[in-house]
Protein backbone atom coordinates (compact mmCIF):
# COMPACT_ATOMS: atom_id res chain seq x y z
CA UNK A 1 0.00 0.00 0.00
CA UNK A 2 1.31 3.47 -0.92
CA UNK A 3 2.16 5.71 2.01
CA UNK A 4 0.91 9.28 2.04
CA UNK A 5 3.51 11.59 0.49
CA UNK A 6 3.91 15.21 1.51
CA UNK A 7 4.88 17.81 -1.09
CA UNK A 8 8.20 19.61 -0.73
CA UNK A 9 6.33 22.88 -1.15
CA UNK A 10 2.65 23.78 -1.05
CA UNK A 11 1.02 25.06 -4.25
CA UNK A 12 1.38 28.76 -4.96
CA UNK A 13 1.05 31.08 -7.97
CA UNK A 14 4.58 30.02 -8.95
CA UNK A 15 4.53 26.34 -7.94
CA UNK A 16 2.29 23.41 -8.97
CA UNK A 17 1.85 20.16 -7.05
CA UNK A 18 0.74 17.51 -9.54
CA UNK A 19 -0.72 14.35 -7.98
CA UNK A 20 -1.07 11.22 -10.13
CA UNK A 21 -3.58 9.00 -8.32
CA UNK A 22 -3.23 5.77 -10.33
CA UNK A 23 0.20 5.11 -11.75
CA UNK A 24 -1.02 1.56 -12.44
CA UNK A 25 -3.07 3.04 -15.30
CA UNK A 26 -1.10 6.13 -16.26
CA UNK A 27 2.27 7.50 -15.18
CA UNK A 28 4.00 10.78 -15.90
CA UNK A 29 7.56 11.64 -14.94
CA UNK A 30 8.13 15.12 -16.31
CA UNK A 31 6.11 17.98 -17.73
CA UNK A 32 6.64 21.52 -18.99
CA UNK A 33 5.00 24.06 -16.67
CA UNK A 34 6.67 27.06 -18.30
CA UNK A 35 7.96 29.57 -15.75
CA UNK A 36 6.33 27.79 -12.81
CA UNK A 37 8.15 25.21 -10.76
CA UNK A 38 6.41 21.91 -10.11
CA UNK A 39 6.67 18.56 -8.40
CA UNK A 40 4.96 15.28 -9.25
CA UNK A 41 3.65 12.94 -6.56
CA UNK A 42 2.55 9.53 -7.86
CA UNK A 43 0.61 6.69 -6.24
CA UNK A 44 0.40 3.19 -7.67
CA UNK A 45 -3.35 2.91 -7.19
CA UNK A 46 -6.19 4.22 -5.07
CA UNK A 47 -9.65 2.88 -4.40
CA UNK A 48 -10.97 4.08 -1.06
CA UNK A 49 -12.60 7.48 -0.75
CA UNK A 50 -10.58 8.43 2.33
CA UNK A 51 -7.35 7.64 0.46
CA UNK A 52 -8.36 9.93 -2.38
CA UNK A 53 -9.25 12.74 0.03
CA UNK A 54 -5.90 12.54 1.82
CA UNK A 55 -3.85 12.31 -1.34
CA UNK A 56 -5.31 15.35 -3.08
CA UNK A 57 -5.34 17.64 -0.03
CA UNK A 58 -2.15 19.41 -1.12
CA UNK A 59 -2.59 19.07 -4.89
CA UNK A 60 -3.12 21.90 -7.34
CA UNK A 61 -3.43 19.53 -10.33
CA UNK A 62 -4.78 15.96 -10.11
CA UNK A 63 -4.49 13.22 -12.73
CA UNK A 64 -7.34 10.73 -12.20
CA UNK A 65 -7.93 7.82 -14.56
CA UNK A 66 -10.69 5.97 -12.72
CA UNK A 67 -10.53 7.31 -9.14
CA UNK A 68 -13.74 9.04 -8.10
CA UNK A 69 -13.31 12.77 -7.55
CA UNK A 70 -16.39 13.51 -5.46
CA UNK A 71 -17.82 16.58 -3.77
CA UNK A 72 -16.52 15.26 -0.47
CA UNK A 73 -12.95 14.86 -1.70
CA UNK A 74 -13.06 18.23 -3.46
CA UNK A 75 -14.14 19.82 -0.20
CA UNK A 76 -10.85 18.80 1.40
CA UNK A 77 -8.61 20.00 -1.44
CA UNK A 78 -8.30 23.77 -0.93
CA UNK A 79 -5.41 24.16 -3.39
CA UNK A 80 -6.97 22.16 -6.23
CA UNK A 81 -7.42 24.09 -9.47
CA UNK A 82 -7.43 21.43 -12.17
CA UNK A 83 -8.41 17.76 -12.68
CA UNK A 84 -7.27 15.91 -15.80
CA UNK A 85 -8.33 12.43 -16.87
CA UNK A 86 -6.23 10.64 -19.53
CA UNK A 87 -9.42 8.98 -20.80
CA UNK A 88 -12.41 10.17 -22.81
CA UNK A 89 -14.94 9.87 -19.99
CA UNK A 90 -15.56 12.09 -16.97
CA UNK A 91 -18.28 10.08 -15.21
CA UNK A 92 -15.88 9.49 -12.29
CA UNK A 93 -15.58 13.25 -11.69
CA UNK A 94 -18.27 15.39 -10.07
CA UNK A 95 -18.40 18.07 -12.76
CA UNK A 96 -21.10 20.12 -11.06
CA UNK A 97 -19.09 20.39 -7.86
CA UNK A 98 -15.95 21.23 -9.85
CA UNK A 99 -17.81 24.07 -11.55
CA UNK A 100 -19.11 25.32 -8.22
CA UNK A 101 -15.59 25.40 -6.81
CA UNK A 102 -13.94 26.79 -9.94
CA UNK A 103 -11.93 23.61 -10.54
CA UNK A 104 -11.19 23.12 -14.22
CA UNK A 105 -11.64 19.63 -15.74
CA UNK A 106 -10.09 18.26 -18.93
CA UNK A 107 -10.31 14.90 -20.64
CA UNK A 108 -8.40 13.31 -23.51
CA UNK A 109 -10.96 12.24 -26.14
CA UNK A 110 -9.74 9.75 -28.70
CA UNK A 111 -6.67 8.75 -26.71
CA UNK A 112 -7.81 5.14 -26.34
CA UNK A 113 -9.87 4.75 -29.51
CA UNK A 114 -7.55 2.67 -31.75
CA UNK A 115 -6.74 0.12 -29.05
CA UNK A 116 -10.29 -0.02 -27.69
CA UNK A 117 -11.71 -0.65 -31.15
CA UNK A 118 -9.18 -3.38 -31.88
CA UNK A 119 -9.95 -4.96 -28.51
CA UNK A 120 -13.66 -4.85 -29.32
CA UNK A 121 -12.98 -6.77 -32.52
CA UNK A 122 -10.95 -9.36 -30.61
CA UNK A 123 -13.89 -9.86 -28.23
CA UNK A 124 -16.23 -10.12 -31.21
CA UNK A 125 -14.23 -12.92 -32.83
CA UNK A 126 -13.93 -14.78 -29.53
CA UNK A 127 -17.68 -14.57 -28.95
CA UNK A 128 -18.68 -15.39 -32.51
CA UNK A 129 -16.35 -18.42 -32.70
CA UNK A 130 -16.94 -19.43 -29.04
CA UNK A 131 -13.20 -19.50 -28.47
CA UNK A 132 -13.36 -19.51 -24.67
CA UNK A 133 -15.83 -22.40 -24.46
CA UNK A 134 -13.81 -24.44 -26.95
CA UNK A 135 -10.57 -23.65 -25.12
CA UNK A 136 -12.10 -24.85 -21.86
CA UNK A 137 -13.36 -28.04 -23.51
CA UNK A 138 -9.88 -28.80 -24.83
CA UNK A 139 -8.30 -28.28 -21.41
CA UNK A 140 -10.92 -30.26 -19.45
CA UNK A 141 -10.09 -33.97 -19.30
CA UNK A 142 -11.80 -36.85 -17.52
CA UNK A 143 -10.27 -39.63 -15.43
CA UNK A 144 -9.29 -41.45 -18.63
CA UNK A 145 -7.38 -38.38 -19.82
CA UNK A 146 -9.91 -37.62 -22.56
CA UNK A 147 -11.53 -34.31 -23.36
CA UNK A 148 -14.78 -33.69 -25.24
CA UNK A 149 -12.95 -33.52 -28.56
CA UNK A 150 -11.37 -36.94 -28.12
CA UNK A 151 -14.60 -38.50 -26.87
CA UNK A 152 -16.87 -37.04 -29.56
CA UNK A 153 -14.31 -36.82 -32.42
CA UNK A 154 -15.64 -33.35 -33.26
CA UNK A 155 -17.12 -30.54 -31.20
CA UNK A 156 -17.72 -28.18 -34.13
CA UNK A 157 -21.45 -28.15 -33.39
CA UNK A 158 -20.68 -26.34 -30.14
CA UNK A 159 -20.03 -23.28 -32.33
CA UNK A 160 -23.63 -23.16 -33.50
CA UNK A 161 -25.78 -20.12 -32.87
CA UNK A 162 -28.80 -20.11 -30.58
CA UNK A 163 -31.00 -21.28 -33.47
CA UNK A 164 -28.63 -24.18 -34.18
CA UNK A 165 -27.01 -22.71 -37.28
CA UNK A 166 -23.28 -22.49 -38.07
CA UNK A 167 -21.67 -19.21 -36.94
CA UNK A 168 -21.99 -16.20 -39.23
CA UNK A 169 -19.05 -15.44 -41.48
CA UNK A 170 -17.77 -11.91 -41.92
CA UNK A 171 -19.67 -11.52 -45.20
CA UNK A 172 -22.91 -12.53 -43.48
CA UNK A 173 -22.47 -10.37 -40.38
CA UNK A 174 -24.63 -7.29 -39.94
CA UNK A 175 -22.96 -5.05 -37.38
CA UNK A 176 -24.94 -2.62 -35.26
CA UNK A 177 -22.85 0.10 -33.63
CA UNK A 178 -24.49 1.83 -30.67
CA UNK A 179 -22.41 4.88 -29.82
CA UNK A 180 -20.69 6.59 -32.73
CA UNK A 181 -17.98 8.60 -31.00
CA UNK A 182 -14.24 8.11 -31.42
CA UNK A 183 -14.33 4.40 -30.57
CA UNK A 184 -17.52 3.71 -32.50
CA UNK A 185 -16.14 5.35 -35.63
CA UNK A 186 -12.96 3.30 -35.36
CA UNK A 187 -14.97 0.08 -34.93
CA UNK A 188 -16.99 1.06 -38.01
CA UNK A 189 -13.83 1.50 -40.09
CA UNK A 190 -12.39 -1.85 -38.99
CA UNK A 191 -15.64 -3.74 -39.61
CA UNK A 192 -16.10 -2.22 -43.06
CA UNK A 193 -12.49 -3.00 -43.94
CA UNK A 194 -13.19 -6.64 -43.07
CA UNK A 195 -16.24 -6.68 -45.34
CA UNK A 196 -19.05 -6.50 -42.81
CA UNK A 197 -22.25 -4.56 -43.35
CA UNK A 198 -22.42 -1.78 -40.73
CA UNK A 199 -25.46 0.01 -39.31
CA UNK A 200 -25.01 3.08 -37.11
CA UNK A 201 -27.85 3.34 -34.62
CA UNK A 202 -29.65 6.57 -33.90
CA UNK A 203 -29.82 7.53 -30.25
CA UNK A 204 -32.51 5.57 -28.47
CA UNK A 205 -33.86 8.50 -26.47
CA UNK A 206 -33.32 11.36 -28.93
CA UNK A 207 -33.06 10.19 -32.55
CA UNK A 208 -30.63 12.18 -34.64
CA UNK A 209 -31.87 12.56 -38.21
CA UNK A 210 -29.90 14.09 -41.01
CA UNK A 211 -32.14 16.06 -43.32
CA UNK A 212 -29.27 17.84 -45.09
CA UNK A 213 -27.25 14.78 -46.00
CA UNK A 214 -24.14 16.35 -44.49
CA UNK A 215 -23.66 13.37 -42.20
CA UNK A 216 -23.99 9.68 -42.82
CA UNK A 217 -27.62 8.60 -42.44
CA UNK A 218 -28.21 6.65 -39.26
CA UNK A 219 -30.58 3.74 -38.83
CA UNK A 220 -33.41 3.93 -36.28
CA UNK A 221 -32.42 2.30 -33.00
CA UNK A 222 -35.23 -0.26 -33.06
CA UNK A 223 -34.42 -1.30 -36.61
CA UNK A 224 -30.78 -1.89 -35.69
CA UNK A 225 -31.87 -4.01 -32.72
CA UNK A 226 -34.07 -6.16 -34.97
CA UNK A 227 -31.62 -6.41 -37.88
CA UNK A 228 -28.05 -6.69 -36.58
CA UNK A 229 -26.32 -9.98 -35.86
CA UNK A 230 -23.45 -8.42 -33.89
CA UNK A 231 -23.69 -5.39 -31.61
CA UNK A 232 -20.84 -3.15 -30.53
CA UNK A 233 -21.79 -0.97 -27.55
CA UNK A 234 -19.47 2.05 -27.41
CA UNK A 235 -21.67 4.88 -26.13
CA UNK A 236 -21.08 7.08 -23.11
CA UNK A 237 -22.64 6.29 -19.74
CA UNK A 238 -25.35 8.71 -18.66
CA UNK A 239 -28.94 8.49 -17.37
CA UNK A 240 -30.25 8.07 -20.93
CA UNK A 241 -27.98 5.11 -21.71
CA UNK A 242 -28.28 3.16 -18.44
CA UNK A 243 -29.62 -0.33 -19.28
CA UNK A 244 -30.00 0.74 -22.89
CA UNK A 245 -29.83 -2.95 -23.73
CA UNK A 246 -32.55 -4.49 -21.58
CA UNK A 247 -35.41 -7.00 -21.72
CA UNK A 248 -37.23 -5.43 -24.68
CA UNK A 249 -34.10 -5.06 -26.80
CA UNK A 250 -32.91 -8.61 -26.09
CA UNK A 251 -36.35 -10.00 -26.95
CA UNK A 252 -36.26 -8.23 -30.32
CA UNK A 253 -32.78 -9.44 -31.31
CA UNK A 254 -32.07 -12.20 -33.78
CA UNK A 255 -30.98 -15.56 -32.32
CA UNK A 256 -27.59 -15.19 -34.03
CA UNK A 257 -26.94 -11.97 -32.13
CA UNK A 258 -23.85 -11.40 -30.04
CA UNK A 259 -23.23 -8.32 -27.90
CA UNK A 260 -19.83 -6.72 -27.33
CA UNK A 261 -19.72 -4.01 -24.66
CA UNK A 262 -16.70 -1.70 -24.48
CA UNK A 263 -18.55 1.32 -23.06
CA UNK A 264 -19.59 1.02 -19.40
CA UNK A 265 -21.05 -1.91 -17.50
CA UNK A 266 -24.34 -0.24 -16.63
CA UNK A 267 -25.27 0.36 -20.28
CA UNK A 268 -26.23 -3.32 -20.55
CA UNK A 269 -28.54 -5.16 -18.14
CA UNK A 270 -26.21 -8.08 -17.54
CA UNK A 271 -28.76 -10.14 -15.62
CA UNK A 272 -31.12 -9.99 -18.60
CA UNK A 273 -28.30 -10.90 -21.00
CA UNK A 274 -27.51 -13.97 -18.89
CA UNK A 275 -31.19 -14.93 -19.02
CA UNK A 276 -31.31 -14.48 -22.80
CA UNK A 277 -28.24 -16.68 -23.21
CA UNK A 278 -29.62 -19.32 -20.87
CA UNK A 279 -32.88 -19.42 -22.84
CA UNK A 280 -30.99 -19.47 -26.17
CA UNK A 281 -32.58 -16.24 -27.39
CA UNK A 282 -29.18 -14.77 -28.34
CA UNK A 283 -25.87 -16.46 -29.12
CA UNK A 284 -23.18 -14.74 -27.07
CA UNK A 285 -21.85 -11.74 -25.21
CA UNK A 286 -18.47 -10.23 -24.45
CA UNK A 287 -17.43 -7.36 -22.22
CA UNK A 288 -14.40 -5.35 -21.20
CA UNK A 289 -16.48 -3.46 -18.61
CA UNK A 290 -18.57 -4.36 -15.58
CA UNK A 291 -21.16 -2.81 -13.27
CA UNK A 292 -18.60 -2.49 -10.48
CA UNK A 293 -14.86 -2.55 -11.05
CA UNK A 294 -12.55 -4.25 -10.27
CA UNK A 295 -14.98 -7.14 -10.73
CA UNK A 296 -14.70 -10.69 -9.41
CA UNK A 297 -18.08 -12.04 -8.24
CA UNK A 298 -21.84 -11.96 -8.81
CA UNK A 299 -21.99 -8.89 -6.55
CA UNK A 300 -19.96 -6.99 -9.17
CA UNK A 301 -21.78 -8.30 -12.24
CA UNK A 302 -24.38 -10.93 -13.09
CA UNK A 303 -21.95 -12.08 -15.77
CA UNK A 304 -19.66 -13.44 -13.04
CA UNK A 305 -22.13 -15.71 -11.26
CA UNK A 306 -20.92 -19.29 -10.84
CA UNK A 307 -23.74 -20.67 -12.99
CA UNK A 308 -22.65 -18.71 -16.10
CA UNK A 309 -19.49 -20.71 -16.81
CA UNK A 310 -21.24 -22.85 -19.43
CA UNK A 311 -22.54 -19.83 -21.37
CA UNK A 312 -20.87 -18.19 -24.35
CA UNK A 313 -19.40 -15.30 -22.38
CA UNK A 314 -15.99 -13.72 -22.99
CA UNK A 315 -14.46 -11.16 -20.64
CA UNK A 316 -11.42 -8.96 -20.18
CA UNK A 317 -10.66 -6.73 -17.16
CA UNK A 318 -11.17 -3.23 -18.63
CA UNK A 319 -7.88 -3.32 -20.51
CA UNK A 320 -9.15 -2.50 -23.98
CA UNK A 321 -7.37 0.86 -23.92
CA UNK A 322 -3.91 -0.60 -23.35
CA UNK A 323 -1.37 -0.34 -26.16
CA UNK A 324 1.90 1.41 -26.85
CA UNK A 325 0.14 3.98 -29.04
CA UNK A 326 -2.44 4.67 -26.33
CA UNK A 327 0.18 5.30 -23.67
CA UNK A 328 2.16 7.62 -25.96
CA UNK A 329 -1.03 9.51 -26.89
CA UNK A 330 -2.19 9.80 -23.28
CA UNK A 331 1.22 11.08 -22.22
CA UNK A 332 1.26 13.75 -24.92
CA UNK A 333 -2.34 14.84 -24.32
CA UNK A 334 -2.05 15.05 -20.52
CA UNK A 335 1.14 17.10 -20.81
CA UNK A 336 -0.59 19.35 -23.33
CA UNK A 337 -3.56 19.81 -20.97
CA UNK A 338 -1.25 20.73 -18.08
CA UNK A 339 0.60 23.26 -20.22
CA UNK A 340 -2.74 24.63 -21.52
CA UNK A 341 -3.92 25.15 -17.95
CA UNK A 342 -0.70 26.81 -16.83
CA UNK A 343 -0.81 29.10 -19.88
CA UNK A 344 -4.44 30.02 -19.24
CA UNK A 345 -5.72 28.33 -22.40
CA UNK A 346 -8.96 26.76 -21.15
CA UNK A 347 -10.50 25.93 -24.54
CA UNK A 348 -10.21 22.18 -23.91
CA UNK A 349 -11.56 22.24 -20.36
CA UNK A 350 -15.14 21.27 -19.48
CA UNK A 351 -15.60 23.01 -16.16
UniProtKB/TrEMBL annotation:
It comes from the Eukaryota. One of its GO terms (molecular function) is NAD binding. InterPro entries: D-iso_2-hydroxyacid_DH_PdxB, D-isomer_2_OHA_DH_cat_dom, D-isomer_DH_NAD-bd, NAD(P)-bd_dom_sf. Coiled coil: none annotated. Residues 35-345 form the D-isomer specific 2-hydroxyacid dehydrogenase catalytic domain. Residues 155-320 form the D-isomer specific 2-hydroxyacid dehydrogenase NAD-binding domain. Keywords: NAD, Oxidoreductase. Belongs to the D-isomer specific 2-hydroxyacid dehydrogenase family. This is D-isomer specific 2-hydroxyacid dehydrogenase NAD-binding domain-containing protein. The lineage of its organism: Eukaryota, Fungi, Dikarya, Ascomycota, Pezizomycotina.
Amino acid sequence: MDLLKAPQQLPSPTHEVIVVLEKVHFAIDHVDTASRSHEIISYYCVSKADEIRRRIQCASIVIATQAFITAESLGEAPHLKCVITPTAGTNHIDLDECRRRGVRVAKCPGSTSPAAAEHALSLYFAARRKTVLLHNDIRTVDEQGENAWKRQRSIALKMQTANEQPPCSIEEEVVGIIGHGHIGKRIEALCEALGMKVLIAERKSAPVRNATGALRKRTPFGEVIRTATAFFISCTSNPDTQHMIDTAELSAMRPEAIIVNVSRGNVVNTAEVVGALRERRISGAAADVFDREPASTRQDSAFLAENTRDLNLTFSPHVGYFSMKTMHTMDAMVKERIRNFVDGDLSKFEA
